[in-house]
Structure prediction request, 544 residues.
Amino acid sequence: MASNYRLDYSVDLVLCIDATSSMGPVIKMVKQNALNFYRDLMGVMAEKNKTCANLRVRVIAFRDYKYDREDAMLVTDFFELPAQAGEFEACVKSIEPMGGGDDPEDGLEALAYAMKSKWNRQAVKKRHVIAVWSDDGTHELGFGKEAPNYPNGMAKNFAELTQWWGNRSNPGVMDDSAKRLLLFTPSKANWTNIQAAWNNVIHYESEAGNGLIEHDYKQILNAIVNSI
Amino acid sequence: MEKRSITEQLSDTFCIAGEAVSGHGEDAFLNLISGDRALLAVFDGCGGLGSREYAAFDNHTGAYIASRAVCGAFHDWFLGSDRLPDNEAEIRKLNQAIMSAYVNCTSSLKERFSLKGSMVRDFPTTMAAVVMAADDDGFRANVLWAGDSRVYFWDKNSLYQLTADDAGSKDALKNLYEDSQLTNVLSSDGNFILHSKTIHVNRPSLIFAATDGCFGYLPTPMDFEYLLLECITEAQNPAALRSLVNERLKELAGDDYSLAMGILYYDSFRALQKDAAVRKRELYQQQIQYIEDRRDDFQLMEKYWAVYRNRYERYL
Prediction:
């Protein structure tokens, strides 16, 4: 019977955290926000009578290929939650602010990694959310490409990364209906370009979400949950 | 044929609505008769795009305010006009009424908002409405919509979707699973299209407007029709039907839901039940029995949907 049926949701989260020295004053708050984010998201889903059958979280800590070399990009696989909650928490807590060289960071490379995550595409109702915390703008893609560990196959420039993100008419590497991008970043290049041009984006203009008030945070969670 | 008034042709009308979170419902609805016209309409404030909260409105969301503001505008336009919005001039008047309501919303705003981006819009809402007026051989039903709220028509042969969703796909089954971003909703920036179409009705049938909370949590469009048929055949009278539909949707919906229903040309509720019972049996035999225990098999649902949609999409 129709009325015995209930749709479940599958949610994948990728948390991209700027881990450069300048994040020192706010890194504790960002780590706590990252840890709270999935719990809060689930809480709001439950409030709205939406059942999440599968939840996975992946962490990307990013710095600067040119200056930080081997420490430039720390990437995990997806943690299945709640089963791997302990490992996930330990991973986030282990992120320490260091390096970074000049002011902008390689946030676009982190975003590229996030987009190419092994998303759960099988689920009937799914949401693929990328959240980014940074206190600065980004380099252009390829700024650190001289580094020996700079990834092969990286988007060559912002235009190519925009194609990876895609849009309704020309979907990119992610599922266009499922994807969401949440930026806790200042109004600096290239975050403002992303806010202006990409679909499915919410930008909270701030330094790594610093000063994020409960009122705004609730709106962000609602924006994501209500769009499911 | 002698021209009959709209009230003679409408056997009954009713609305039902429910909130996902009590006190925070973002839907609104209308069920009005004025002169020789009748109106059924639903409005669904877009909770995702309209999650921004406004201090000037007691910290309600843009979605909450939008559905009510546009509902009010529609109400005032309907009572202030004696025409169907089936022509450019009347649609322009309705648009003006909606934009005036939006000006009232935005003129009191002094806040600076930290949230920006393509997933944030001011006062977004969907709308699906049917305005009916008698003519010489039945009546004309003028359907208006923006977004993914829908107007449906039902007769003893099938359920028909009259409005094409402003979403990634026009395929009603796909849209149940993909949750695409809406491509067109009413909002205070004025960047929206109000779609319009007219059908002629002169036979026993149902016509109703519904927000996605009504049909969006069922596995297929066939199940939505089946749910309605179950309610019609189980209810003792129109009041009981209203309660039963409300009860079923409350169990299912993960969202607010609103439905504004008109029962047309049925001399009695019993006559409607008779048609519904025959159609229910047919739908079960042709569709539901094959998919009811195999909800994980999307290909199977697609196979039966491919047959069902031939009739279902006849007016799209």
In short: The interface with chain B takes residues 1-3, 5-7, 47-51, 124-125, 127, 168, 176-178, 180, 183, 195, 198-206, 215-216, 218-220, 222-224, 226-228 of chain A (CB under 8 Å). Chain A has seven helices and seven strands. Chain A has one domain: 7-104+117-177+214-226. Residues 7-104+117-177+214-226 of chain A form one domain.
